[in-house]
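It would be a great kindness if you could assist me with a short task in structural biology. Thank you for your consideration; the sequence and its tokens are set out here.
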Amino acid sequence: MPHEVSRCRTFRYRLHPTNLQTQSLLRQLNFQCELYNDALEERIGAWNRERRSVTFFDQCMTLKGLKDSRPEVVASGVTLCRGTLMRLDRAFVAFFRRAKCGETPGFPRFKPANRFTSLQWEDSGSGWKVKLDHQRLYLMGIGEIKVNYHRPLAGTAKAITVKREGTKWWLSVRCANVPAMPLVRTYSEVGIDFGVVNQLATSDGELKKGKHLGTKAEARLARAQRQLGAQQRGSNRRRRQVEEVGRLHRKIKSQRSNAAHQLSRQLVNDYDFIAIEHLKITNMVRAPKGKPDPEQPGAYLPNGASKKAELNKSIHDSGWGQLVSLLSYKAESAGRKVVGVNPRYTSQTCAECHHVDSGNRISQKDFRCLKCGHCDYADINAARNILRAGRALQTSVCDGCN
């Protein structure tokens, strides 16, 4: 049995505030949004005027004066304000990290009130308290809010986030020292090939059909978007239609997340060793570059951008990245092993004789080796190659350790 180690985990629960508590939470969202924007303006102004950097600790020192000048902002405790300033500081840290790595940096932006939807308490137990026995969450200045703790909380609660999603409220509790929960070994291994039509194919010959949740809801979304475009800006009808469009998007997100959770849990329960493709999804969904027409200045040649856009939409709808993320953390907690392998040539290699040829894959569905004549479903053949590559990678790592 694998050795148990402590981890950090986040547990998410549904909040059920009363009408008065909802109004208090909405007021705090507005106050913290104002604080975030003021702190961002202070950092920008200090650098433009004096070439001086304002740190998180500098801005935390200014919170002492808020108790006298703006007591309503600190009604839920200084800890909440520090959480807002920490959020801004993390945005700057991420900006400098991306700039240093040569990526598109994305400078922190001012937040409109309708996009500032979460409150963060960083310090453990200061201004908040999780009450599991009473199914409540205590927040300073707001009171005890009813919570549906549908599963027990493990480890030590260190920080919380309260988030609004439409008309619903959610609680996220970040815990440290969460013990591992290793499962009984099954002595089974599997290779997984991701796809669009089939969400994944396994080396055992099993195909998991993609649910295509975004495609199924596309007609409803398009109708809702048309109705939104017909509403007058600033009107109550437009505001209600914006909420309806957001509700449809959140429903798709929830359905996709639920499907990914169920599938990842099934795979972790069934297999000790899981080999998957190490895909660079961000590069795969990148739009093709334009091809200037040499005969017509300012015009561009056809580059298949519309077909690529449909493929990109299907990749996003399949939810590969979310599935890999859930699979990785669940396997880690269960004592399973997940290995990512290079997907290069896995769809062109024969799983029987290991002959590599682009002509082996005669269609999106069929595979027939030109050397040995082996025939198989193309994705299942690729999954077998991925499992073989994962085993070889695991063996080389073990040999290096020895």
